[in-house]
Amino acid sequence: MLPSWRPGATRDAVVGFLDAALDLPADHRVACLDNDGTLWCERPSYVQFDFLAHALAGATTVDPALRERPELAAVLDRDLVAIEDLGIERVALALIGLFTGHSPEEYTAAVQAFLERARNPLLDRPLVRCTYQPMLELLDELRRRSFTVAIVTGGGVEFVRAISQQLYGVPPELVVGTAIDYETGRDHAGNIVLRRTGSVSGGAVEGAAKVASIQAHLGRRPVLAAGNSAGDREMLEWALAPGRPSLALLVDHDDAEREFAYESVAATVADAEPIVDVGRRAGFTVVSMANDWDTVFTGPT
To answer: Using one digit for the tens of pLDDT, what is the confidence trace for 66-75?
Structure first.
């Protein structure tokens, strides 16, 4: 069980929870896991950002006038100072707008085509091989115990749904995340069609919004939650209900040799205290990537 997890207190806590969870009714066995930085690598940039930047580069060859928009020019130039000055929300909306008018199927195909060939430039690995082997082993153990496993992400829900089955064995209907609005219409034959808009439905699914979104979309409270940043704090706290087996896992990126060493922060949620300090005080099980994982990534480079 969990061969990539090194013996120690962290592994003991995970195994202890897995054993204790068998005493729960099957419909109470719900696990919700963040994606970026929890199930796969989020450095040097979010994979979804890389996808949108790639789409922007292609669109600019067709319509060079796109570069005249300052938020798009900042992305094309990888100008992080300009992106910060403009605001991540404004930049994100501009990038999302690149797929306005696309059907869900067209968008999914674009995501999958990008991930078939994209690589992490610093790790020199295919992006689809930048998933964390220990977390995939945990997902397998949860499923062996009849858990409902869901991904709850601050990223675009349709982006993660495009790859969730392939990478994690999680079906699209069990992915909760930031959503865009759709317009419903009819094609020339009178058939109903869905088209993406450039607007976000509600806000980003981070912080307390993760808890509300889990209830709205899944209708069940998790007994296991896993995350890595302040955007996951409330979800992790919510999972730690008293009087029942529960586990809140916080992945600490402290392995500069095999991955990256950094303090995880949320894209839209600020926290004055480092999330690892918060987690230790709140009773989270903090996973040291450097000390607790014998293997980090899946498969060959």
So the answer is: 999 999 999 9
> What is the Cα–Cα distance from 94 to 104, expressed in whole angstroms?
18
CATH architecture for segment(s) 9-43+124-292? 3-Layer(aba) Sandwich (3.40)
- Which runs of E-coded beta strand occur in 157-208? 175-186, 192-201
Per the CB < 8 A criterion, the answer to whether 42 and 120 are in contact is no
Residue count (the chain): 301
Sign of CA dihedral 293, 240, 213, 29: positive
Sheet holding 148-156, edge to edge: 192-201, 175-186, 148-156, 30-33, 224-227, 247-252, 285-288
Tell me the per-residue pLDDT of 77-101, one tens digit each, with 9 for 90 and over.
Answer: 999 899 989 988 899 999 999 999 9
Residue 145 phi, psi (nearest 5): -105, 20
Place of tokens 């990256």: 260
Sequence-distant (6+) residues with CB within 8 A of 104 are 158, 182, 194, 196
Whether the CB-CB separation of 267 and 83 falls below 8 Å is answered with no
User: What does DSSP say about strands 148-156 and 30-33: parallel, antiparallel, or unpaired?
Assistant: parallel
Where are the chain's structural domains? 9-43+124-292
Amino acid (one-letter) located at 157:
V
For residue 30, the cross-strand partners are 148
CA dihedral 277, 282, 285, 286 (to 10 degrees): -10
Site of tokens 């759709």: 182
Given this model, what pLDDT does residue 292 score? 98
pLDDT at 88: 84
Neighbours of 150 (CB within 10 A): 23
User: Measuring CA to CA, how many Å separate 172 from each of 49, 166, 198, 209, 226?
Assistant: 20, 10, 21, 19, 19
Give the predicted TM-score (pTM) of the model.
0.95
- Please give the structure tokens belonging to residue 270: 């600020």
